[in-house]
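Subject: Estradiol 17-beta-dehydrogenase 11

B.,
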Amino acid sequence: MLEENNNQSHFHDNNNINSRATNLRDEYHHIFNASNSGNRLSDNINKKFNNKKIQVFHLRISKSKLLRYFNAFLEFWRFIFYCIGVIVQRFYYLAFGWPEKSLSTDIALITGGGNGLGRLLALRLCKMGAKIVIWDINKAGINKTVQMLEELGGYCKGYVVDISKREEVYKAAEDVKRDVGDINLLINNAGVVSGFNLLDTPDHLIERSFNVNVVAHFWTTKAFLPKMIENENGHIVTIASMAGHVGINKLVDYSASKFAAVGFDEALRLELEVLGHNNIKTTCICPFFIQQTGMFDNVWARWVSTLNPNEVADRIIIAIKRNEKLAIIPSFLRGLLILKWATPLACASAFLKCIVPDAAPQSRPQKSILNMATNAAITSRVNVMSTFKDNLSPLTNASSLLIQRSSSLGERVL
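Prediction pasted inline below.
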């Protein structure tokens, strides 16, 4: 009986254990299911939140795109109205006259002012009352220019400077600031030309063409531009060439350097405008071939006459007084430049060969590149001497303003 009671006790204990295990299992499943439903709820919330974030992000992107499109739209119409205003202003000036600034208080520096076009510009500026500073490599030419300007009652000071050498430019600039004052009219006039076919041109003349015709502009501009900006008054004039817009036979190095000079002026002007230095003006002068300057006196040109240097000097002064950005001389060549890009390049090349059959008739083709230097030296002496012998007739008398320089091998200088 005792044993039977014990068996019943064990049976009840087992039942209790099983029921407790079942309860624990049910509780575990309930918790597990609740946890899974919570995770699913959390996942749903996260998904909805992420979708909301994506929608907000897309909304922001669409707003930024819309803003960009709107700004582009405004910029476009601002550009259109600006162009219309400039065109209307241009017609107004053509009808009623251009406003011209006074140059009487300017201090002008002219590179290559020892003869030719540089001297003619110095004479005109001096008559207007400007102080003149002359840079040149020829001391005799400098002295002659200074003497002529002083006889007119003007102020002129000359310095012997090789503008192709950066150190000389910076040193001379400091001397000018100390002796004369701050330059506010810089005329980069000096230039050289070789006048040979490319393969007949010595390497040092190619380097010289670039150093004088364009690289020197960087040194002179960097020397005087800071003070112009500080004083909020300045004008930088680049004497380039029509050869800076079109290529010419026997002027590969010269034309390439003048292309660079035109680009220098345009890029500098845009940079000054972007920086807000609107009081600093730039002017690029692009004349056709000029007579009696020692550079293109013997050029063979047809259809378009070579230019009188006095007329070119007068036109340059007018362009400076009007703050013109670009002056093409003669002005009708501007239309021909449009035709260059409006017609096939083959047509433009044929036209250029008709206008300028030979830019340097006296430079004869060399038989071989090996004897290039010797032949170039002979040709140089012929070119330089014949140029100055043929130009003893009056220029106003401009030819009397021509001073023979000590040129480099094969080089003719302005």
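The chain has a mean pLDDT of 76.

T.
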